[in-house]
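We give the chain.
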Amino acid sequence: MKNQVLRFLIQPGDAGQRVDQVLPRYDASLSRTRLRKLIDIGAVHLAGRRLSQCSRQVEAGQTVEIYIDGLPLVSWSLSETAIIYQDRFLLVLNKPAGIDSQPTPSRFKGTVYSALQKYLEPSQGVGQVTLGMVQRLDRGTSGVMVFSIHPSAHKGLTEALSQRQADKRYLALVAGELPDDQGEFRSLLARNRASNLVKSVERGGKEAITRFRVLTRRCGTTLVEVELLTGRTHQIRAHFSEQGYPLLGDIRYGGPESLAGYRFGHPLLHSWQLGLNHPVSRHELHFIAPLPGDWALFWKQLGRDLPDLEHLIEAAQEK
């Protein structure tokens, strides 16, 4: 199911009734059970504000908007196995693909932001959670994300990530075999209002610098290590697509939806490594997030004679 927005105007005869009783009468696709799930994740907005209670009574003339993103109506929760590092000031997470980094009109619960709030509540207290989100990853991107969880760390972490003081490395699987073993893409990126995609422009955009190193070429694909010198929205996806090598699974930027009989559920982009100085102690920190399992499944689908993906990456790291 694609993204959609349902809009309704509460009629006078429905005033004073529960919202979960009224809306199913306005649209046959909204069973009471489905509507309650939509309300629970934060997809229903009443009079311009996100609704949290199924029992909320409606008033005549109020507007209702329901944002549906087509994803499962379940809330992702954070487990300790996803935590790479945590101290009093920082928390580093291995984000799974398919999870939004921050709340959207379609959902609040189940995003990385809301899951971290819930995770931190036992130690920081309900309503007192301090969470600084400086780094963001696209929904389909997995891997390392770092957050400040103490006021003393907010400024230092913001400066490290915004002033190019952090070493950010990604892994990407792209369609086609890149001819050069290494290179750099440099352009001004801006969002196109008509397509809502990011693309390079001659003027008016923000500087974006992407460096890459080829780790291996196999079966019409290339595994690349990507170094981000800037952190623009969709930077890696746009730069490789414009060069004719879109990411596997990145349908929005021209990437193939499937290959070798394997259907991708998201762009194959992974926030692999992050290095920075601790914003408070100034000690050097370096984090690595292991690859998601679906990468290995696809790699095996390409051919049984291929070397193990993790070992291949480790060998390339040592060069």
